Amino acid sequence: MEATTDIANVGNTELTSAEERHRRAIILDAKLEDALLESFACMAEIVDLKLYQELGYATAKEYFEKKSLTVAQVYRFATIGREIAPQLQDSKFKKEVAQLGVGKLEILARKAEGSLPALMQGNTITLGDEEYSLDDLNDVSVRNLDERLKKLSKKVEENELLNEQKKTLELEKKHQQKRIKELEEQNDKYRQQSESYDEIERDVKEASKLFERVRILVNRIETEQVPKDLALILKTLIYTVQEGGEAMAERHAELLMSMDMEEL
User: Fold this and answer.
1) Which of 40, 143, 149, 138 shows the shortest CA–CA distance to 97?
2) Are 138 and 99 in contact (CB under 8 A)?
3) Residues 6+ apart with CB under 8 A from 37
4) What is the pTM of this model?
5) Cα–Cα dist 15/60, whole Å
6) Which one, 43, 154, 184, 248, has the greatest CB density within 10 A?
7) In the beta sheet, which residues pair with residue 132?
8) First to last CA, the chain
């Protein structure tokens, strides 16, 4: 009956008192807000389920153009209808939330999806690193709210970029440290090999000189002139050199064989 009465009052400019006009304005405002939210929910369902096809339209664009709505408008409204309208059904703050307006509701639908249940209970919500109550949201303009969130989004992106750069530098640092350690180990290995080579070279050259000196000294001795008391010493020296040569040949047999093979 109330709906019929409301329809009957359409175009009625004969409201008799300021009190009646005010009451009527409040009623119509609430109904309009409900109707808008309901229409947004309808748009979301039509788009999501592609119900426009059941009415003979190939695309949502074709369907909503018949309603004098652009696709951009529809998707904005559908976002509100999809994310916010269903949560308002049992909310005690339905009127306060609805009065935020389309612009703010769209921002909330896009930026505060996880916080919406708290807002429907009249609690504060977090947008970026700032908290907002329903009163705060009413006081801030759509433009100001959008600019704050854009700056915050840019700040978050910059922080994420810095974090990624930091991680990259840390990985590069670890890679360089690992490479430095490998080079140090390789250097130690070469140094040890170099020291070992130097020692071997020194021993070989010194041994060669000593054996050459022994050969010269022994060959210089005239056997007939060796006194008897020195003959035993000379004999022992000759046998020692002979046995030492055989022992060395056995010790370095692998080296001697490999060199013989190369000569072949």
Assistant:
1) 138
2) yes
3) 80, 81, 84, 85, 88, 98
4) 0.45
5) 42
6) 43
7) 125
8) 121
Count of beta carbons in the 10 Å neighbourhood of residue 84: 26
> Rounded to whole angstroms, how far apart are CA atoms 187 and 66?
80
Tokens 């040569």 sit on residue:
245
Residue 122 Rama label (left phi>0; alpha psi -120 to 50; beta) = left
Alpha-helical regions (H) of the chain: 2-8, 18-48, 60-65, 71-83, 85-88, 94-98, 102-111, 116-120, 134-139, 142-220, 228-251, 253-263
170, two tokens: 């840390």
As given in the structure block, the two tokens for residue 147 are: 């600019």
For every one of its 264 residues, what pLDDT tens digit does the chain have, with 9 covering 90 and above? Answer: 344 445 445 555 566 688 888 888 878 877 887 788 888 888 999 999 999 999 999 999 999 999 899 988 888 888 888 887 777 777 677 777 777 777 777 877 777 666 667 767 766 766 666 777 777 777 777 787 777 777 766 655 556 666 777 787 788 778 778 877 877 777 777 667 666 777 878 877 887 888 888 888 878 888 778 787 888 888 888 888 777 777 777 777 776 676 666 655
Residues in the chain: 264
| Packing angle of the helix pair 228-251, 142-220 (nearest 10 deg) | 150
Burial 196-235 (b: 16+ CB within 10 A, else e): eeeeeeeeeeeeeeeeeeeeeeeeeeeeeeeeeeeeeeee
